[in-house]
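Researcher: Good morning. I'm working through a list of sequences from a screen, and I'd like to move beyond sequence-only analysis. For each chain I'm collecting a predicted structure so we can compare shapes side by side. This is the next one on the list. No need for commentary yet; just the structure.
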Amino acid sequence: MTGLRFGQEAPTFSLPSSAGGETALADFKGKADVVLVFYCYDFGGI
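Model: Good morning. Structure tokens for this chain:
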């Protein structure tokens, strides 16, 4: 997969939710602002 360009639509994906279950990017379609933050879960070395 190549990187995305500014303004390009993000690919469809889903991830486990911290509240349980799964959350899909499509769940936020139509929202004004969506911020995605990825971090190392166990705060260990990568």
